[in-house]
Design a protein that fits this description.
3 helices; mainly alpha; 60s Ribosomal Protein L30, Chain: A; globular; binds zinc ion
Amino acid sequence: MKPILREPISFQIDLENYNELINAGFILHGHVCPAMPLGIRAALEALNTLGVDRAQNKELHVIMENGPSHAALCFSEGVQVGTSATFGKGEII
Ligand SMILES: [Zn+2]
């Protein structure tokens, strides 16, 4: 069965907002590494592909599978920053 996807909504993040997300990610994550920004990029691409906005309050849930390696966990923090779905709000499983 082919998934039904909406047209991408107006969610577009400009470079200034993208840089704010990267900076927020580095504050959250605490060190400089390539995996966290990749998580942000993947999250933004997923939001655009699915036609949904960043999480506000439990209207978006993320199911994430990753391994225990350092880079996988860094990536997951980027996904939190990019989607605004967080472990703290119970929006990521
Ligand atoms: Zn890292």
